[in-house]
Amino acid sequence: MSRSRRRHGVQATATQPADAYRAAGVDIDAGNRAVALLSQSVASAGTPHVLSAPGGFGGMYSAAGLGADAVLVASTDGVGTKAVLAGRHGRWRGIGVDLVNHCIGDIAVHGARPLFFLDYIAMAALEPEVVAEVVAGVADACRAAGCALLGGETAEMPGTYVPGAVDVVGTIVGAAPKDRLLPRPETIRPGDALVGLASSGPHTNGYSLIRHLLDGSPGAAADTGLIDALLEPHRSYLPAVTGFSEAGIRPKALAHITGGGILDNLPRVLPAHLGARVDLGAWPVPQLFATLVDWGGLDDSEAFRVWNMGIGLVAVVEASDADALAGQGSSVIGTVIDIADAGGRVTLEGSWR
Amino acid sequence: MSRSRRRHGVQATATQPADAYRAAGVDIDAGNRAVALLSQSVASAGTPHVLSAPGGFGGMYSAAGLGADAVLVASTDGVGTKAVLAGRHGRWRGIGVDLVNHCIGDIAVHGARPLFFLDYIAMAALEPEVVAEVVAGVADACRAAGCALLGGETAEMPGTYVPGAVDVVGTIVGAAPKDRLLPRPETIRPGDALVGLASSGPHTNGYSLIRHLLDGSPGAAADTGLIDALLEPHRSYLPAVTGFSEAGIRPKALAHITGGGILDNLPRVLPAHLGARVDLGAWPVPQLFATLVDWGGLDDSEAFRVWNMGIGLVAVVEASDADALAGQGSSVIGTVIDIADAGGRVTLEGSWR
């Protein structure tokens, strides 16, 4: 893999493609055009730590300065079927942002800051403009996070992908000092506060059901406001998490609210003997979610598992730290409680509308 | 992402799926079964550097001991349409090996040893046994390389993937001391030797054309020997590259022969003013490639671009080092020459049969 040579069923070259290649359904010229279009995005998202020039088999990132006790934290993820919805509306740049910000969330909750990112984009017949738009979005989000876009791969695979469909996969590598890793479940106590940070929308989960609901609602696809809201890119929680440090607050745990919603993600950071009580009236759930819940006829136990319902990240903190964190875009949404008090692990109380 | 919670269109949970989920075409129980099947593979492929337990949002790898001048080298890659051929014959474990060994090659040629690996597996309808087999192969290859399988993701995306099709994407992160990074193009001179290391077969490139040819040859799919040869997993070049060090030989450059073959990959490591002359009679080209070339009616300029033709990695070394490296599975295959002598960058001379 390398930035300047994107993979194809048959590798892109500068020569005229043989009849055999075309017969096998792979367009080398399109591959070259894709590479040309994305190179500017890539060049814009390097950082001083990047040693490699495009064209290598792998990307190189200097680990000097990480610190003797550094821990690398890595995650790989796709954006799921949000890409299908984006494709229907020709909105690819946001998908690149989604990819990066979802990955940032997955390592930020471990206390790690991003170092570098690699992307993989695949489809049946290569559409260079789609690839370029996705990579532009990836580069946008990487730049915003001080994260180097180290490398990527584009694959053209007729027979694997439904025509017109695209999958994007990202891998992020970050670092944290060992003594700053999260979660710290051993420090969590009943009475600790749960501070929820607002999401920007469904982020990258629950889109299979969203599309199912859209398909069942004639006219929905023409509702521009609705589509805009559904395609809003995943928020980056890097600034907020960095802000905790700067406010002198050390969370005991952070939960990224992804697939499984608050119900399944919050328990991942709690010790086995503790649960959580979430007050559903404690934050403004965006109208979008009310619309989706009504369309789907979901009850709370389903809705708060499929979608984030307006909360993209939950911080578990000392109750005394909660007020310092609550503010624009964040709310105290609940409390850590003993497991005996929690029906299952997370109890939802009250009403969100 | 986390090893124990694989992504789905709707996240896998332990509760009964709502009717809405099933209606959207996502099977949560299958997801849970996939996780159970693969957990043993994952547990077998940890290393002492891995800090995280399955279930986290990201995987954690201790960077202690890397060295103050370490450079991280990373690559992301798929296996291309070899997965389609493997799927037709129910041969998934080798695909996991392919994924890892291709990535190992991409960083080994930069002088890096593997640290950790993450995988992504996606398909239309989740088949837990397929996922488990792929991950078993990934774990096999990681163990063999002393590489930690740090995390992964499984995505179930009806509407994106052709039913029955599977895509697998791997990301590898390795490390090298800064003064051991490759290539070192500034050290390469006319007269330097090219040592080719044998491949185990087509590895992971050229399979779109291979499938096209198979489709055009009735009875080929029933030729077990042929299918076995085509599905032979990508060789790991880690032992060979490590062996260079142990023999006290420092290559000037290493080229991983992937998409684009010898013709396009060798120039990637040569300085602009130099080319290469490759003697086509210098190594035994496996019969498999003769069969494929004849089927496709390819001339040498096409064959040596689509397929590796029996050479999976080329080392550029001092001529005086060449004999020490040539041996079982490796041959001196050519010489570095001035660009004026090279028609294009790589000149193929002689005949391979």
Question: What features would you describe in this structure?
Answer:
- 2 copies of one chain form a homodimer.
- Chain A has 353 residues and is α+β, with helices and mostly antiparallel strands.
- Helix content of chain A is 33%, strand content 23%.
- Chain A contains 12 helices and 11 strands.
- In chain A, the strands form 2 sheets. Chain A has a 6-stranded mixed β-sheet. Chain A has a 4-stranded mixed β-sheet with strand order 2-5-3-4, with helices on one face.
- In chain A, helix 5 links the parallel strand 3 and strand 4.
- The first copy, chain A, is globular, with a radius of gyration of 22 Å.
- Chain A starts with 18 loop residues before the first helix and ends with a strand.
- The relative contact order of chain A is 0.15.
- Chains A and B meet through helix 1, strand 1, strand 2, helix 4 and strand 3 of A and helix 1, strand 1, strand 2, helix 4 and strand 3 of B.
- Strand 1 of chain A pairs antiparallel with strand 2 of chain B.
Summarize the structure.
Two copies of one chain form a homodimer. With 353 residues, chain A is α+β, with helices and mostly antiparallel strands.
Please name the defining characteristics of this protein.
homodimer; 353 residues; alpha+beta; six-stranded mixed beta sheet; 11 strands; 33% helix; disordered N terminus
Helicity level of chain A, as a percent range?
A: 25-40%
Tell me about the biggest sheet of chain A? 6 strands, mixed
Question: Which regions of chain A have little confidence, pLDDT < 50, spanning 5+ residues?
Answer: 1-21
Strand order of the largest sheet of chain A: 7-9-6-10-8-11
Assembly type of the chains comes to homodimer
The radius of gyration over CA of chain A amounts to 22 Å
Beta percentage of chain A is: 15-25%
Mean pLDDT of chain A: 88
Largest interface, C-beta closer than 8 angstroms, per-chain residues: A-B, 101 and 101 residues
Structural class of chain A: alpha+beta
Query: What is the N-to-C succession of helices and strands of chain A?
Result: HHEEHHEHEEEHHHEHEHHEHEE
